[in-house]
Amino acid sequence: MLRSNLKSSLRRFSTAINRRHIEDEGDWLYSSEWWVSNSSSSRTVFRKNSRHGNGVVSVISHPCSKPDRLYWGKTEKWLEQRHHDIFPGSKNGGKLRVCGYEWRTLHFNDFTRESTVKVLVALREGEGDEAGSVCLMQQPRCLAVPYVRSMISVGLTTIASCNYELTKNAILGKQNLNVLCIGQGGGSIPLFLASEIKGAVVHTVEIDPVVVSASTQAMGFPAFTVTSPNGKRAREKPDPLDEVLWKGTHERMLLFSSDAEKFILESANVYDIIFIDAYDGEDIFPRKLWDPNSPFLQALGSRLHPDHGTVVVNLHADVELDLDAADVPQVSFLPMGKHVSQVGEAYVDVLLESGSGFGYNVPVPWVYNTSLVVSRGLDRPKDSVEWNVILNTLISKGVEVEKLLNMPFSFLQYVKTGFTPLD
């Protein structure tokens, strides 16, 4: 009964997904460029052993077909103008020559693909010690991996539906959106949020210093975000080039090299939204991050805003597929399995113990992932009618947020397809 009622709501909004066409290189249609395992045109640009269960951490570079070389000059002029605006009257350099664009993919153990980002590769020209050095700038609006797009879609849609003024205030910089990301990877989620939401203040926790190095040295993530063990920035002030590339975005991000449980237990911060993507080199989501009796999950509730706090967790679907079955290529997403159910139940029970709030999960198209969402906003639905109200609110807010951000993809394909309430 619940599923049939929900499906009727989904059909009414089915036309919203393809309402416009914006060039989107992160679309799965381009996946042959960045989802390759072995290619004669690929090269290793970072490789180092991890001491935190991730084996060999490597970054592989793949050629990127867009934008065309004809447009590189526009980017050079844009960077030069930005340098002039930030450092008026400066005669020392500021000239960057675009060498191209690349996909950079992070791997654990040489086989587990963790994340993919697109980077601008540029060469510093002029005089001085930095002349001739290569700089990388990750392209935050190009979200390549479907589960990353799913987490951002459901996260922003949900918190915007929970009496938090995301569209009127936070996106415009009139109000802070305090964000915690557990798991850095290539840094796609924190960089996107800080770049696109002017009020976002983003803290990221990554247990493995090698992953931190990989993202800042080889994946174009701003190095000024890195903190020292005392919690302060490792660099006292940003490089002038950081100002040109990021124009303040890097100053609203902090990247902590710490165990997530330790960080949560010692932190006094309260976050509006928390993103958790913390699989290790063995492709395991650590039990201590979802066990209902773990110190981490118990403390997480204290770090989450009591009125609208929202948590988004990336999980791997855990159902068995017959790989020889003829209909496997037609499977666009996988249903929820036992492990996903257990994690969802734990997060709902612990984070919503006061009674208000709701939880749901949605399978991610094209890959074997599921996005779990638990939010303290809104009253807990009691029946299918109330779930329909929540779903309609999510759909409406999703369209509003993606329009305001001028997203190159629709949030709705990640919010409504396979929407499953957690009662």
UniProtKB/TrEMBL annotation:
Annotated SUPFAM superfamilies: S-adenosyl-L-methionine-dependent methyltransferases (SSF53335)
GO biological process, one term: methylation
InterPro entries assigned: Lys/N-term_MeTrsfase_sf, SAM-dependent_MTases_sf
Highest taxon, organism lineage: Eukaryota
Keyword Transferase on entry: yes
Keyword DNA-binding belongs to the record: no
Signal sequence annotation: none
UniProt GO molecular function: methyltransferase activity
Annotated keywords: Methyltransferase, Transferase
PANTHER family in the cross-refs: OS04G0510700 PROTEIN (PTHR12176:SF56), SAM-DEPENDENT METHYLTRANSFERASE SUPERFAMILY PROTEIN (PTHR12176)
Family to which the UniProt record says this protein belongs: Belongs to the methyltransferase superfamily.
Identification of the protein by name: S-adenosyl-L-methionine-dependent methyltransferase
Species name: Salvia divinorum
